[in-house]
């Protein structure tokens, strides 16, 4: 058995991986150390082996080789599915990534879709030891009962939670009780921001529905773009005007995390070759972000697995901004461009975000077994 790897750049996992395993039908690829495959990481590829004994995988998407990886391991399986063969290839020292800095950690999640069974949500929150950022769709039908249940669940946490509305966080039609409009979603967010203020965050809320929360050199900005009838809007552009003025203000934070349920169309993992964006003013929001640096744009909505071939995290090197689509805690969607894909690639996920003084680390984790997802690991130096 033989393994050949040609990486395209330092620390990047992008490249060509060629396996030669005569008599085998497929091979899986893992990051490894001297003892074998890293035990807390998933495989990053499953490669069919052709009748001539070769199989090739082309890695794209800008993922990073994880810390602790010294080798690439290929594990080939024979047609009886009982016998395997392995080979390891050492990663050249010049290709290994720089160790990520310790920093402030957040746990990202989205698309929780609470209806009447909260166990998946509680499981996700148990996997979140740090401040939680939720990119929308906390509940499934936007009813006061569902939002109250979510509020009760989040009230049991001993750490701050920030959230924005998704298209499922409002009922299809506005609810009216005793002649007054019911807005349980806004009440839930107000409660979360009050708790964050008690934890030391400086809170700024705008009448448009946007908010900012700052602590130290990190700021969390929430854009609430959802409305009834499952629509996306920006309150006639008031949130965008507030956002631009806020980002332009003096004394900006080193890192600014923007929570917005729908991804920008240029950074949407499932973007079509042509078509209409989810919401109006997409270009205006993109222009505002492009004129600033140090922005981390976190979205949900797509339910796409971090294992998606082209990736769910993008680094805009020209503007030094990062776009993260953090999948769903519900089963995710894997749009296969490959002949082989593992069942584990559609498990619900949470995503760890670590902000150092000059590095950003992103790592998705499976809710099924807690393992780190190799295709969900990215690290950037600033």
Notes on the protein architecture:
The protein is an alpha+beta fold and 382 residues long. The chain starts with a strand and ends with a strand. It has helices spanning 119-126, 144-155, 184-198, 238-248, 282-290; strands at 2-7, 15-20, 26-33, 36-37, 45-48, 54-59, 71-77, 84-90, 104-109, 131-134, 161-163, 175-177, 180-182, 202-205, 211-215, 218-223, 226-227, 231-232, 255-260, 295-299, 313-316, 321-325, 349-355, 359-366, 372-381. It has 5 helices and 25 strands. Strands 14-15-16-19-20-22-21 form a 7-stranded mixed β-sheet, covered by helices on one side. The longest helix is centred in the middle third of the chain and has 15 residues, at 184-198. It is globular and about 65 Å long. A hairpin with a 6-residue loop joins strand 7 (71-77) and strand 8 (84-90).
Key terms for this structure?
7-stranded mixed beta sheet, 6-stranded mixed beta sheet, single chain, 25 strands, alpha+beta, 382 residues, 34% strand
Note the topology.
Blueprint: E1 2-7, E2 15-20, E3 26-33, E4 36-37, E5 45-48, E6 54-59, E7 71-77, E8 84-90, E9 104-109, H1 119-126, E10 131-134, H2 144-155, E11 161-163, E12 175-177, E13 180-182, H3 184-198, E14 202-205, E15 211-215, E16 218-223, E17 226-227, E18 231-232, H4 238-248, E19 255-260, H5 282-290, E20 295-299, E21 313-316, E22 321-325, E23 349-355, E24 359-366, E25 372-381
Parallel strand pairs: 9-10, 10-11, 16-19, 19-20, 20-22
Antiparallel strand pairs: 1-2, 2-6, 3-4, 3-5, 3-7, 7-8, 9-23, 12-13, 14-15, 15-16, 17-18, 21-22, 23-24, 24-25
Helix pairs in contact: 2-3
